[in-house]
Amino acid sequence: MTPQRMAVLKVIIDNEEHLTAEQVYGRVKPDFPMISLATVYKTLSMLKEMGEILELDLHTGCKHYDGHRIFSHPHLICTECGAVVDIEEHDLSNLSQDMEKSTGFEITKFQANFFGICPQCQKH
Amino acid sequence: MTPQRMAVLKVIIDNEEHLTAEQVYGRVKPDFPMISLATVYKTLSMLKEMGEILELDLHTGCKHYDGHRIFSHPHLICTECGAVVDIEEHDLSNLSQDMEKSTGFEITKFQANFFGICPQCQKH
DNA sequence: CTACATGCAAACCCTTTGCAGGCTG
DNA sequence: CAGCCTGCAAAGGGTTTGCATGTAG
């Protein structure tokens, strides 16, 4: 893995947020001024294939990446301010297993997003 | 609501599948040869706002629409052949309620998609 | 020398938008 | 006439790709 690619992975792992390709690009650029967005995309695609990072669709118009927890986990998204809360929830894993039994599918991953209004936004 | 828009809604309701904008366009065209894709998109957007149809992201590169069950429900998607199975599952509703209590969010909808390999594709 | 990595720009694809003409009431 | 509905074409935005150059082993 090249230094640039390492940098992309590091940026994703070092951030608690779920960065977009554009954001990753912006944060890698100080250290690698010559890096292009295309390289970032190619790298993200590679890391995703390798299972190093998780690609998320938070319904914001572009993809987000999470390097902290490779296993799928649910998100709670505020439709007012865009805040994203990661959920630690194991019920869905059990649900996956139940579903495998009842449908015969071999489930490889799941995506569960809950949309709503966060406590702060409810006040306004 | 204009006849064309009624036709768009009807196509979605009459189909068990989750049609894409392009597919809706193709099925409305026999009755309304002059209809344009732009009108289909505008109508789908309107119907979504009205809460008549549900917009789904099945990770196929474009959006799908479901007019049968306006309330969110989970899907099981085969990553090999693209088959989509609707899941009747009430555990997620309970989960929503639990989550509201623990996070203070007011949850308006949820999206849950399980990806895997269907029984047929597992044979090959 | 072979293979892979990179930057640039163009291409892609689905979706949205601007606009002028039509239709309705 | 006011206001919405329509089709067309163009624009839009995130992502992908082709290609020539650069780099490493």
Give descriptors for this structure.
homodimer; 124 residues; alpha+beta; three-stranded mixed sheet; DNA-binding
Give the topology.
Two copies of one chain form a homodimer.
Chain A: H1 3-14, E1 19-20, H2 21-28, H3 37-50, E2 54-57, E3 63-66, E4 75-78, E5 84-86, H4 91-103, E6 106-117, H5 119-123
Helix pairs in contact in A: 1-2, 2-3
The first copy, chain A, binds a DNA duplex (25 and 25 nucleotides) through residues 2, 4-5, 20-22, 34-39, 41-42, 45, 61-63.
Describe this structure in words.
2 copies of one chain form a homodimer. In chain A, 29% of the residues are buried. The model of chain A has no long low-confidence stretch (mean pLDDT 86). Chain A contains 5 helices and 6 strands. The first copy, chain A, starts with a helix and ends with a helix. In chain A, the strands form 2 sheets. The first copy, chain A, has a 3-stranded antiparallel sheet. Chain A has a 3-stranded mixed sheet with strand order 5-4-6. Chain A is an alpha+beta fold. β6 of chain A pairs antiparallel with β6 of chain B. Chain A binds a DNA duplex (25 and 25 nucleotides) through α3.
